[in-house]
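Data availability (excerpt). The following record was deposited with the supplementary files.
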Amino acid sequence: MRLALLTTLTMTAFAANSVLNRAALAGGHIDAVSFGVIRLLAGAAALALVVLVMRGRLRFGGVGRVLGVASLLIYLYGFSTAYTDLDAGLGALILFGMVQITMFAGGILAGEATPPRRWIGAALAFGGLVWLLWPGGGAEISLRHGLLMMLAGIGWGLYSLAGRQSRDALMGTAANFVLAAPIGLAIGLALPGAVEVSSMTGWGIALAVLSGAVTSGLCYALWYALLPQIASSVAAVAQLTVPVIAMAGGAVLLGEALTGQFVVAAGLVLGGVAVSVTGRRG
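Predicted structure:
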């Protein structure tokens, strides 16, 4: 029960990142790349401070460190850049579809047992997302931005797989963020016209800092602590709840409308997750 509650808390934090991002960008308070850069720097600063207070020093070595840093950067910048010209719903489908493929493949390669029940649940949950988020027939799809979102999904899947090797979740996450921060800052500044200082407001910066320090940095550390305790395929399926939670959060906090279709699709997603994670352990 404790593991289920902590996993639910983590998925809610991931969804909160989406809500914070939408609140900042949709209101014109900040541009997408600047949000990503500040998010990364704030996460690094918060995690470094917590580790220094609790452990006295930072350690940057460890199993999977290169993969953790590289995949974190691929996810953050693939995500931010893709959403400059990609439908939100389709972007979420591509992202979480690639997360599923990457993490299921990682579990298979690692020799994890993946019972039929888990495949069926994953298919049901992802089918619910497809029905909920698929754009209308008139939507135009940018191949370049679609590929960037695919990279983001692979990046997040690899980041989660790397977390299964972490022996110290807090230290490992802090090291990932601190090492990624200067590289991420350089990438953000190098992208032509990406960082728009004139478009930043205090509110946009505050939302990016909150996203980086709390719902990214600290909650990614919690995710790293949980990952060794659950199968890769279970972790993958659980993340399909994130878009549903984000849409519900958008309705409550941003006044976004919910439809009957959302209710039914949410039931399919949650039902699929339940099918995947209940029953005999595989």
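Summary of structural features: The CA atoms of residues 36 and 76 lie 7 Å apart.
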